[in-house]
Amino acid sequence: MLSTGALRAHLLAAGLAGTVATSREVSLRSYRLFAARDPRVTLGLDPARGWDEAELLRLMADRCGVSGDPAHRSGLDVIDPERTLGALGAFAERLGEAAARRAPVLFGTGHPHRLLGFYAALADALSAAGCLVLTPAQGRCVDITTRFGLRTYRLDYVRGVALVREPDLPAAGREPGAHTHSPLPVRVALEGAAECGGPLPELVVGDHGWVCGAGQLGIEAIGLADTDDPALFVGEAEGQVSVAVPLDDGVRSDYYRPLTRYVLNRACLSR
Predict the structure, then answer these.
(1) pLDDT tens digit string along 212-260?
(2) Distance between CA atoms of 270 and 260, rounded to whole angstroms?
(3) DSSP alpha helices (H): ranges in 101-224?
(4) What pTM value is reported for the model?
(5) What are phi and psi of 139, to 5 degrees?
(6) With DSSP H G I counted as helix, E B as strand and the rest as coil, what are the percentages for the chain, rounded to 5?
(7) Any idea what DSSP says for residue 162?
(8) What radius of gyration do the chain's Cα atoms show?
(9) N or C: more exposed end of the chain, with fewer CB within 10 A?
(10) The dihedral sign for the CA sequence 84, 96, 120, 139
(11) Closest CA relative to residue 42, chosen from 31, 55, 28
(12) How far apart are CA 131 and CA 151, in angstroms?
């Protein structure tokens, strides 16, 4: 079993917490855009009240450990590893509760290049515990507005984890999927589940729009978020998101493996 101390050391060594690669400028820009209700950063969340930049900075300092000094405008951002560890414990608790009641679960990621393996291992463990890992609306088109204009993607599943792909890429270039912040994929997946009369998820696990989009619709949602993803932490503060884990979501995929072991151990799902 991976100890808390060992995981804390790994978080710092791998850049998952401590000084992270996300710049202060990028984080502050996201807070500014969120305060303006820009959909690129609200990620499908419709906040119950207005959040100005100063309030968002205070929230992110509280939930992530970033500097709360508004005069700090440049350099690399910081995540407090203690906050990451605490949130991972809450994340594992929600997974354990879902496993205990054999709840249907939906996994989805907008970071397939980095986080697919992390979510897939959790999906495998929940499936082995008797949960139904849902894969609704596979192959359905999702039209997402990007900086290059409107792009059509297709919803796909890899090892039980939803992601979107550009349909016109050759097979060799299709793995592991496209990066997206959009809530539209989770909406399409939930619509597909409802249309088929199949079960809806009792828990959605993921990041970006997968978490905020599901939480906004009243489905329990937990996920990972970087310092430039204020929507998940606002959702957590307002009650639409159950758990938001602060960490760098763009490091090498193998750096998340110790987190997988830690979460599965804490959730009593290790095999």
Answers:
(1) 999 999 999 999 999 999 999 999 999 999 999 999 999 999 999 999 9
(2) 10
(3) 112-128, 184-195, 208-216
(4) 0.96
(5) 85, -5
(6) 45, 20, 35
(7) E
(8) 18
(9) C
(10) negative
(11) 31
(12) 34
